[in-house]
Amino acid sequence: MREFLAILLGTIMFKPVLSWAPIRPASNTNKNCRLQSTAEETSGPVDSYEGSLHGNNSCFLPLKQLDQDYYAPRIVQIAGSYPGITKEEFLAVNSEPSPEPGQWTYDFSDADGPQLGTVAIEGSNVVSVCGDPVVIIAEHTALSIPLPPAITEPVDIVVLVDREQNRFAERRFLLLDTPNDDGLIIRAFETKQDMPADCDILGRVVLCHIPWLPSMKPTKSGFLESDEYY
Question: Would you say 189 and 51 are in contact if contact means Cβ atoms under 8 Å apart?
Fold first, then answer.
């Protein structure tokens, strides 16, 4: 059991290098589900590359709007193994508050380190079949995802990318590494010839989570076209 926990904890503490940093949330976002890119802020989606963003040329990201009463999986730290756990071990770990209904929460094993930590993703067949999943946190404006006009600040979108699906797919949103050192981009293309020259496909977007925010109207009206904001 102790060997299993050592392996499990070692996996949790893995630290991928990503250029994000936590910030103070905007007034219309929840502190648990908002991050800020270290790159310069833009007022809209990046448009220096060809290809489609969400809603362009009938290409649409695989979005899922959370309900206002959705309860995200809660991330809980592991204190030790039983039998054998001590009082000191049991009391040493911290607990985090539950995420607000309709939103999610992040877990930072080292808030001052270069990695983002973890976020719980709702279980589904789409998530289960991912061969090599990784999450990117993106501002909704960078992906051209429309939200209600009352939301004026960038909102975090959880983007689940399967790194195993690193081949071209028509009209599917791909994560690309371009040769211009502008960082990674997410785009969909009609044909492989439309892609930027000498770019590398790092994975395919399989799911995007949109939080429910207080400025949004209640969901679950019974009509699908009324319950989605995109």
Answer: yes
Pair 121, 158: CB distance under 8 Å: yes
Q: How many domains does the chain have?
A: 1
* Residue at 1 is within a domain: no
Residues 6+ apart with CB under 8 A from 96: 74, 75, 76, 105, 107
Burial 71-102 (b: 16+ CB within 10 A, else e): ebeebeeeeeeeeeeeeeeeeeeeeeeebbeb
- Three-state DSSP state, 111: coil
Residue with tokens 């977007």: 205
Give 8-64 pLDDT, tens digit per residue.
444 444 333 333 333 333 334 455 566 655 554 544 555 567 888 998 888 899 888
CA distance linking residue 198 with residue 195, whole number of Å = 9
**20 part of a folded domain:** yes
The residue range of the domain holding 220 is 14-39+50-227
User: Is the overall model pTM greater than 0.85, yes or no?
Assistant: no
Give a yes or no: residue 94 inside a domain. Answer: yes
- Domain assignment present for residue 127? The answer is yes
